Amino acid sequence: MDDWAEYTNPLGVLRDFGLSCLGAGEQADATAGFESRHLDSHALVIITSGSGSYRDRRTGAAGIAVHAPAILSITPGTEHGYAPDAAGWSESWLLVTGSGVQPYTRLGLFDRTRPVLPLRELPALGTEFAELRAALGAADPIAPFAASALCHRILVAVAASIRPADPTAAAARATAAFVESATLEISMDERARRLGLGIAELREAVRTVTGSTPIELLVQSRIRMARQLLVDTELPVSRIAELVGYADAAYFSRLFARRTGVSPSRHRAQFTRGRTTA
Question: Where do the HTH araC/xylS-type domain residues begin and end (predicted)?
Answer without folding.
Answer: 172-270
